[in-house]
Design brief:
single chain; seven-stranded mixed β-sheet; four-stranded antiparallel β-sheet; 3 helices; 11 strands; 23% helix; 45% strand; elongated
């Protein structure tokens, strides 16, 4: 009988000890800077790390997930605009949109009055296509930008007009 009581007491102490150790370990992990995911953040894939590249770094993959690949292909400039050329490959069976949001050039924000950043490309299902981020020269000049030096924005992948699939912060240095 004494052995059974001793075994039960030791077992209970072991369980309490393991539970206490497990709780300490868990609290250590949650005290980091990670933010718990909410149901809405589970729908949107957000890369918190900024994808940085220069305009001379052609073939830079900006986004690759869910059957979609967005690749920077180079910079073109004509009398009307700068265009950061993008190549899209969509191997999924869904159609998506790629748009820029929260953008600024040389630290001047895009606004309703001055559309200095324009991008809205459709990615057809199971297809490759091209598009780009456009910086109209007349809109840049209207906000006193003679030459773009840095473009910062979120590149967003959108499904069915309303569901944002991914937000990819990018920073492009013009050389």
């Amino acid at each position: 009988m004494k052995k059974k009581v001793f075994t039960v007491v030791v077992s209970l102490l072991a369980i309490l000890f393991l539970t206490a150790c497990g709780n300490n370990k868990k609290s250590t992990n949650t005290s980091s800077s990670e933010v718990p995911k909410t149901s809405s953040s589970q729908k949107v894939e957000q890369k918190s790390k900024v994808v940085e590249f220069s305009t001379t770094a052609t073939d830079t993959v900006i986004y690759e997930s869910k059957g979609l690949t967005v690749t920077y292909k180079g910079l073109e400039k004509d009398d009307y605009e700068y265009t950061l050329k993008l190549a899209y490959k969509n191997t999924s069976n869904k159609e998506y949109e790629v748009q820029t949001r929260n953008g600024k050039v040389n630290n001047i924000s895009n606004s309703d009055d001055h559309k200095i950043i324009i991008c809205s490309d459709t990615l057809k299902a199971s297809a490759a296509s091209e598009g780009g981020i456009k910086l109209p020269i007349n809109a840049l000049e209207a906000v006193s930008i003679t030459k773009p030096k840095v473009l910062e924005c979120n590149l967003e992948v959108i499904y069915d007009i309303t569901e944002t699939i991914a937000k990819v912060p990018i920073k492009v240095t013009f050389e």
